[in-house]
Design brief:
Helix content is 38%, strand content 18%. The chain has 332 residues and is α/β, with parallel strands linked by helices. The strands form 2 sheets. An 8-stranded parallel barrel has the order 1-4-5-8-9-10-11-12, surrounded by 8 helices. Helix 5 links the parallel strand 8 and strand 9. The N and C termini lie far apart (44 Å). The relative contact order is 0.13. Bound molecules: ligand PBG and zinc ion.
Amino acid sequence: MAGALKDNSNIRPRRLRSAQLIRDLTAETRLNLPGMIQPYFVIPGKNKIEKIESMPGIERHTADRLVKQIEKDVKLGIKNVMLFGLSDKKDSRATMAYSKQNPVVKAIRKLRTEFANDVMISCDICLCAYTDHGHCGLIKDDYVDNDASLDALSRMAVVHAEAGADIVAPSDMMDFRVGAIREALDSRGFINTLIMAYTAKYASAYYGPFREAADSAPSFGDRKTYQMDYRNSREALKELWLDIDEGADIVMVKPALPYLDIISLFRQNTDLPVAAYNVSGEFSQAKLAVKAGLADEKALVLENLTAITRAGADIILTYHLRDLLKNRWFDE
Ligand code: PBG
Ligand code: ZN
């Protein structure tokens, strides 16, 4: 050892950690609030709000009540919303997905009228809340038929764009859906509607609370023939190249916390904005840990969201956003 190392006694990493203001001055990562999106669940009907047992603080709203909720949220500082629909009319062709009666389509109309361009509206594009079997595509011979699902997804994107959505976000994981949706939007003049693709969406145990919330669990089998296998990361790059090639504007990784390596991989391999979805199971897990006294909520949420940002996400979809703003956790 002697002589092999320079005398480093003047390099003291702890100097940069010695006081809060110094840590704040030199922090490498900062939360990007304008890049955060709050998810909502929209139900058909009027004047109803329903609690979601597994997701404390998150509710399902009819379009009229959603407007009131978002009014409050805008005052807190929320600027970006992501809407998920529920439906009591489900069939094998997912008819309600691309109907003008779709609860999300109606909600978007109302929100556009109410908030003009003060709120950025994104919406999930997927068939699972509207099919009677709960799969994300249409079924042929017990298999989710990729190409037969593209038309329904494209039509769904078009009716949502027509209603005034700024961003459509296909979460179905069918091959070619980004290209098909881009073409359908462009051919109807919606050249400025953005596509935020769920590019690397993994078949995950972390979607449990969402499926309760959105009433969208598959009635048979699982989603492993279309969502990605969590053992794979090179495959995520393949999905990335394809979505870029098909015209995605924003690429997403989902879930977020168990997939920080994939977020980082995307950051290094594209100049497009990278989004990460801090999903329902991650949210519920944090809430349960806090309830059990295992962690302080502010500390846990800030650490989680900062880690997702540090990995390379420009945009984070998170159910924690309202709590973060309401409690002003980010300020301190
Ligand atoms: C629908 C969809 C799901 C989520 C977003 N869009 C569920 C699924 O694929 O089963 C999950 C979101 C969350 O867990 O918060 N395809
Ligand atoms: Zn789906």
